[in-house]
Structures are given as C-alpha cells and as structure tokens.
C-alpha cells in the first residue's frame, strides 16, 4: 500500500473484510482504517488528535490479533464470542501484552461509531448537500457527538472548520477529477453501510453497544 491516501484502496479493504457468510475479518477492517488515517493525516495537524486516537485504537486491535489469542480475533464475530466467553468484554486481564484493561470489543466499538459518522459525511458529500465543514458537523451531531464529552465536541468543531471546500476535498480522495471522485464516493457509501450494519447487529444482539 502506498503512503498516499486512495479512496479506492479503502473501499477495497472494507469490501474484502466481508466474507461470503457476512463475517467481518479483522485484518482487512484494520487495513481500511489505516487507509482512512492517511486521509486524516493529509488534512493537516488540526486533525492530529483525531488521527492519534484512531492509530492508538488500531494498535490495540493489532496487538490482540498478533498476540497469543490472536486466532480468536480473526473476525469481529469470533472476537465477540471469545471475549464474551472469557469475561474480557469489559476489559479484563488480557493475555496479549500491552492491552491490559481494554477489550477488543470496546475498542472496536469506538471505530464502529465513527464509521457511521463517515457514512453520513461521505453520503452528504457525494450528493452535494453542502460544504465539507457543514456536512462534517451535521454528520457528527447525528452520530458520534452523543458519545463525546463537551471538550472533545468543541475541539472537533474547531477542526471541522478547517476542512477544505468541496472540490479540493474531492481531489484529496485521489480518485480522479471531482466528477469521477463523486462516483467512487457513491460506491463507497453502501460498502461502509454494510460493514456498519453487520457490526451494529452483532453488537446489538449481544448487548454490547454501550461498553464503557
Ligand atoms: C474529515 C474530517 C475528520 C473528522 C473526524 C470526525 C470525528 C471527530 C471525532 C473527534 C474525536 C477524536 C478524539 C478522541 C476521542 C476519544 O475519546 C473517543 C472515545 O474513545 P475512548 O476515549 O472511549 O477510548 N474516540 C472515538 O470516538 C473514535 C473517534 C474516531 C474518529 C475517526 C474519524 C475518521 C476519519 C476518517 C477520515 C476522514
């Protein structure tokens, strides 16, 4: 994978994360997020605190996946089953090093909620419903913000105002000229939506949507 952000790469990773039986594979899910981090980083240092949090969460998931119990982290479904069975969901004493006190389930839940924000935001951009800063804060108020304390909401609000206007933003997606980028975006939204919905149903079925 190149250092430069590519929307198509992100779409491909999330697509590949879905198995035929609608399981979601952890490695490809993480890969999709790694791609998104590149976009965040290319937006400038005001977004650094957001990208740092995502990187931190990804490294927790990667170390669980690479740890002694890594086989249980093959998919989101197997992670949920394993952590529920072993009493690790609320952040037990993980065998994997460096992840004491944090569960894979609670870590992934944060990314999962952010995926909803992304789906709303990119959907709005693809349908040209407003400028990126406006759509970003609208999507945020409809999703993630309810899970964030005031101090994060206000820092996020400041960062949103630094987003570029529509065409420069579309060019940053590295998916061709704006009209083409819009088409690629239109294809990305349903893929993100499918990953989101499967995860939401999985978490809801096991009553994990409010993990601290
Ligand atoms: C394109 C512009 C990007 C805007 C991103 C919109 C989301 C703003 C979120 C700001 C919060 C980041 C600071 C860290 C917050 C953490 O406290 C929370 C909860 O984790 P905990 O403290 O419980 O461990 N973290 C999150 O909610 C995850 C936030 C991830 C944001 C991902 C943005 C994805 C960007 C994609 C590419 C444009």
TrEMBL record:
Residues 26-174 form the Glycolipid transfer protein domain. One of its GO terms (biological process) is negative regulation of interleukin-1 beta production. InterPro entries: GLTP_sf, Glycolipid_transfer_prot_dom. Gene3D superfamilies: Glycolipid transfer protein (1.10.3520.10). Belongs to the GLTP family. This is Glycolipid transfer protein domain-containing protein. It comes from Pagothenia borchgrevinki.
């Amino acid at each position: 994978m190149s250092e430069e952000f590519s929307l198509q790469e992100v779409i491909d990773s999330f697509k590949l994360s879905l198995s035929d039986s609608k399981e979601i594979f952890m490695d490809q899910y993480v890969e999709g997020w790694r791609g998104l981090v590149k976009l965040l980083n290319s937006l400038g240092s005001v977004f650094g605190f957001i990208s740092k949090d995502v990187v931190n969460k990804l490294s927790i998931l990667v170390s669980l996946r690479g740890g002694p119990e890594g086989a249980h982290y093959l998919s989101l479904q197997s992670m949920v089953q394993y952590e529920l069975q072993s009493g690790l969901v609320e952040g037990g004493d993980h065998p994997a090093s460096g992840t004491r006190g944090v569960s894979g389930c609670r870590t992934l839940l944060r990314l999962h909620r952010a995926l909803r924000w992304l789906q709303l935001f990119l959907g709005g951009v693809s349908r040209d419903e407003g400028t990126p800063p406006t759509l970003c804060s609208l999507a945020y108020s409809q999703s993630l913000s309810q899970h964030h304390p005031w101090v994060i909401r206000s820092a996020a609000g400041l960062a949103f105002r630094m987003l570029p206007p529509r065409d420069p933003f579309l060019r940053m997606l590295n998916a061709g000229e704006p009209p083409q980028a819009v088409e690629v975006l239109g294809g990305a939204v349903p893929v993100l939506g499918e990953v989101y919905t499967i995860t939401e149903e999985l978490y809801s079925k096991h009553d994990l949507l409010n993990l601290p």
